[in-house]
Write a structure and sequence with these properties.
Neuraminidase, 7-stranded mixed beta sheet, 4-stranded antiparallel beta sheet, Rossmann fold, mainly beta
């Protein structure tokens, strides 16, 4: 066994090690081509991790749920398993897994260290090539077991698709409660699967448009504290809050630059709104647009060189792109209807948007030059897309017609894998974090 130790995160105090076991000659390595138009989910068997309590089954269940939600994997019902894994260090009986069409197999084990830490290990097997594809071992505090499961799911996703996963991430959103005419809105945060939810603000003041920093565990958001819209920064680990600045008029849609050193936003003055950036170190503000229209919802490209935003300067809301200094402003959306809430993919290849047309709201994507527009989902009122860290999945919120309130959904780039993200109360305006460190 070869072991390579590294720290995955100081706050988590987790250590991972690589586990290798040669299990015979390789013939063909199982993999998923996620660039095809229609991806057939890969049948995968995920066994309960061997442990002295129910935690082994719970970790396996979280791994299975993560992979299934991606739409790329089809976990096999455990009732179909033939072999009972008793020693995850030994090669499984591959024929027993091929019989039930498990093209990949996950086995694992949990143990408690003398210092109280939890040791979790897993192995990923290719049942048709009779070989181990990957294996890792983690040490962490027992209360972090769900995060261990998400990291394991990410490792499996990456090994079989060739791309980073997105399961070890969080989502900040606006939690809504109360009657429709007097909604209370609080900031809340949860794991990407809806677990570990906690409130970040109280219900005394309305909050809007939370957004994650790409470089720190920090969010920016808008609050109507004191009756005036203000932009705040909130440190998630310490709870420390900081006012970005007092601006005359309304402030809209604050969002971080890719390096986390600036906040870009829309400021309304004299009936129009323009886009500004603020350097968070010097607090210097720079104006990027200067029109008699409403320019809002700016979002940087991942390299920080360009900005996409919405503007009604042409008569109705459309999407425009400009340089990071405000130069070369040009329209990129030309379809029927109105376009809003653009957000640049972390991969840099697509822009997600909300589109209003024919009395309905759609979530779609287009290439950065405006070509290749694709609508992923349409409903009574869909709005506010946000990208997963790997740029393969979007979350958004949907307001139903009539009674009820908004709920968060996810959908992948195929447009076929749409799922509700369960929250205890109504939820809107999600913002996905980068992968946790």
């Amino acid at each position: 066994m070869k072991m390579i130790n590294h720290i995955l995160g100081v706050p988590l105090a987790m250590v991972a090690a690589l586990l290798l076991l040669t299990a015979g000659p390789a013939r063909a390595v199982v993999e998923i081509d996620i660039n095809r138009a229609n991806v057939e989910p890969l049948p995968i068997a995920i066994t309960d991790f061997i442990s002295n309590d129910e935690l082994g089954a719970q970790i396996a269940a979280v791994v299975s749920a993560d992979l299934k939600r991606s739409g790329l994997f089809a976990p096999i019902d455990k009732a179909a398993f033939i072999e009972k894994i008793s020693n995850p260090d030994a090669a499984p009986r591959f024929q027993d897994w091929r019989v039930i069409n498990a093209q990949a197999l996950v086995t694992g084990r949990l143990a408690r260290e003398a210092d109280g830490r939890l040791r979790a290990e897993f192995r990923l097997w290719d049942t048709f090539a009779n070989q181990q594809l990957s294996g890792e071992q983690f040490f962490t505090r027992p209360e972090n077991w769900r995060r261990v499961a998400h990291i394991i799911a990410d490792s499996i996703y990456e090994r079989l698709t060739g791309e980073k996963g997105y399961f070890d991430s969080r989502v900040v959103f606006v939690s809504e409660s109360g009657p429709k005419t007097a909604r209370q809105k609080q900031l809340a945060i949860m794991d990407q699967d809806g677990a570990n939810l906690r409130m970040l603000t109280n219900a005394n003041d309305i909050v809007l448009t939370p957004r994650f920093s790409p470089s720190r565990q920090e969010i920016t958001y808008m609050s109507f504290e004191g009756g005036q819209p203000r932009v705040y920064l909130l440190q998630l680990e310490t709870g420390q809050r900081e006012l970005v600045g007092n601006f005359p008029g309304m402030t809209f849609s604050p969002r971080f630059s890719p390096d986390g050193q600036k906040v870009i936003m829309s400021l309304q003055q004299d009936g129009n709104a323009n886009i500004y950036t603020m350097d968070l170190r010097s607090r210097q503000t720079t104006r990027l647009t200067n029109t008699a229209a409403i320019d809002t919802s700016p979002s940087y490209s991942p390299d920080g060189n360009q900005i996409v935003f919405e503007s009604d300067r042409g008569g109705r809301q459309q999407l425009y792109i400009m340089g990071a200094d405000g130069s070369n402003q040009r329209r990129v959306s030309f379809g029927d209807g109105s376009y809003s809430t653009p957000v640049w993919s972390p991969r840099g290849d697509l822009i997600a948007f909300t589109k209003q047309s024919g009395g309905k709201f759609s979530i779609g994507v287009m290439k950065t030059d405006g070509s290749g527009e694709r609508i992923l989902t349409t409903g009574f009122h869909n709005e506010g897309p946000t990208w997963s860290p790997n740029g393969r999945v979007l979350m958004f919120f949907r307001q139903p017609a009539g009674a009820g309130g908004p709920q968060i959904y996810s959908i992948d780039l195929t447009g076929y894998n749409e799922q509700l993200v369960s929250t205890p109360s109504y939820a809107s305006d999600p913002a996905w974090s980068p992968l946790l460190e």
